[in-house]
Amino acid sequence: MKKILLLFIAISITACGAYNFYTRSNPHLESIMITEFANNSEEYEMPDLTEEYLIQEIIDDDRLEVKGDNADIEVTGTVRSYKREVYAYDEQENPLQWRITVVFSIKIQDMVKDETIWENKNLSLQQLYNEADANNTGQGVEIYSEEEARIEIVKDLADQILTNTLEQW
To answer: Which residue ranges of the chain lie beneath pLDDT 50?
Structure first.
């Protein structure tokens, strides 16, 4: 009886470890194409950075093949605005934390069915970062540069795209 119980426990643990929480609401979608992002902001490098890290996040996710053309999904986007503002000050009223807000216009098109999967013309994503200082008084924010904050925003964008494309409930 003990052997059966141990076998059951081992199978249960193994099965739980291999369980995948991702759903495939659109199983016919296997490849994705990211078109060149337009830029309506004053940050000229933001579209290139967005494309670069968006493609990398999709590759790392490993559920869709990234293609240059003839893909099942086409993502088009625009960086509508980019704003950097002081979020917190230290005791001497020097900037301590900054908040970056990037507003995107995103459209995800199912090229197989010729329909829009998801569209958001006013997707606002924010990230805080600290000024790198010797005392490390950043109040829990672990991002220390504007560049790191931008990358985190693009990772959030990739997550939203993947969620709204592949994981719809």
So the answer is: 2-23, 134, 138, 169
